[in-house]
Fold this protein.
Amino acid sequence: MIESSSHKNFTVKVDKLCKVYKLNRNQYKIATNQISFGLKNGDCFALLGVNGAGKTTTFKMLSGDILPTSGKAFINQHEVPSQLREAQHDIGYCPQNDPLLDNLTGREHLYLFAALRGIPSSKVH
């Protein structure tokens, strides 16, 4: 097990990350239950599991799309979600659905996504 204080040794550090959805008044769905892992620069990583195992939920929490119920996550020592803007400079993911727009070229998509991420136009090329 990785100590929670050791996030500085990892590019991506997830420590006991949980997400619980409230379905109705008395029912809850646990999407992730204390998931922990650490990735160092250059690591190759994949989350594998059956549908409903929490893979997409984990990536949504890391990218700031949804808030975790509990636990901690760090991207290059920036805590998600409290330092989300800084963390988002170093992470992105492609969801399962097609994020491309029909009327844009590949180059136009890259310019659009760079603008959405706040990359200065002088650095986009």
About this structure: Strands lie at 12-22, 28-39, 70-75, 78-80. The chain has two domains: 4-93, 96-125. Residues 96-125 form one domain.
